Amino acid sequence: MDSKTEPKSFVIKGDICYSTSPQEVSCTQNGYLVCVDGKSAGVFGELPQSYAELPLVDCTGQLVVPGMSDIHVHAPQYAFRGLGMDLELLDWLNTHTFPEEAKYADLAYAGDAYEIFADDLRHSATTRAVVFGTLHVPATELLMDDLEATGLVTYVGKVNMDRNSPDNLVEDSAESAEATRGWVADVTGRYERTHPIITPRFTPSVTDGLMAELADIAHQNDLPVQSHLSENLSEIGWVKELCPWSTCYGDAYDHFGLLGEKTIMAHCVYSTDEEVDLLRRTGTYVAHCPQSNAQLASGIAPIRRYLDLGMNVGLATDVAGGADLSMWRCMADAVAVSKLRWRLVDQSLSPLITQEAFWMATMGGGSFFGKVGSFAEGYELDALVLDDSAIRTPRDLTVWERLERYVYLAEEGGYLTRKFVAGRQIDLD
Ligand code: GUN
Ligand code: FE
């Protein structure tokens, strides 16, 4: 069926859960989730008469939850996921990441790699994603074509790198800005659900001059921004040397006007008080990447602090710092590392609870896309239907308990049976 003509008004019947606050999840057994023109009209215990004529998608006995937003993932790194996890960030970039990303100059390689990435993302719990490509414009446009075809909603970035990079993965500063302007002009309006995002890799890879140009492009075209911030101690020391004028690493972006409610900064493991205040005041999103921070021995971000301050926080896999695309594993890891941080580092920051991880994966990150990540009335209807019947237990579980263990046991016997993005069903075949 042509996805544009697919009916977007229907009712899903099932065991429905969604966050109503970071700590609270509303659960309705045998409930009805009503979708009208791609948006939620709410969740009901009894189906209101006014919706009785809508088509019914009967998922009785299955869990129905909002889709997940992975707000920081590197598409070209998917090809070496699970490999080379034995180094810290800067050595890992030089040894594994940059050589892999250089291969995307070859469109045939990029085509094969991005087809696999897009296909696996389509079958995952992720309904929305914020994605890094490489510095290559043709390969990044190919990635955008592939992602558009999945039906998911994504932001995709052509990466900028004009210093401290290998000869086969570096740009001339003026050409980098020019290529970015050309790419933005090329892709603007081309897609229905795939959007450009300005993507300076991180301060060590981008000169001040190019950083200023990129801010200009973002402002002129009203585009969002993504980058990395305070992930690793050697990285932070290096930024201090490269930008001696900056008051903190975050200032090396803020100075150019690159922080704000349309900016995502990945990691923020070692943000100083000043940097935290900057992120909070500007409404910048923190992408929490718990698995990547563990695999690259980066550290544990103080997410409890960010949540207590009411900051914008979402979850992210950061593939290939993280090994796979599972947002279930990402949630479980977020809770686990918060417990280690509390036990080993700082007893003043209490561990996260599973409800908070679920909120970050759905509403926290979803809000970067607008009214996304909830089933409250008026939200775009992104939904996952989950069959948990193969996860065996003799116990009678509440709906919440079934969702809670799904976070931990998705890979054991969880099965994604349907997936909707803005009311449109995604092909999972
Ligand atoms: N900092 C700069 N580039 C990268 C990257 O590709 N992955 C991670 N985790 N951190 C980075
Ligand atoms: Fe990253």
Automatic annotation (TrEMBL):
Q: Does the keyword Hydrolase apply?
A: yes
Q: Does the keyword Ribonucleoprotein apply?
A: no
Question: Which metal ions or organic cofactors does this protein require, according to UniProt?
Answer: Zn(2+)
Name the UniProt key words of this record, in alphabetical order: Hydrolase, Metal-binding, Zinc
Show where the Amidohydrolase-related domain sits.
63-403
Alphabetical list of InterPro entries matching this protein: Amidohydro-rel, Metal-dep_hydrolase_composite, Metal_Hydrolase, Metallo-dep_hydrolases
In terms of Pfam families, this protein maps to: Amidohydro_1
Q: Which Gene3D superfamilies match?
A: Metal-dependent hydrolases, Urease, subunit C, domain 1
Taxonomically, which superkingdom? Bacteria
Protein name in the entry: Amidohydrolase family protein
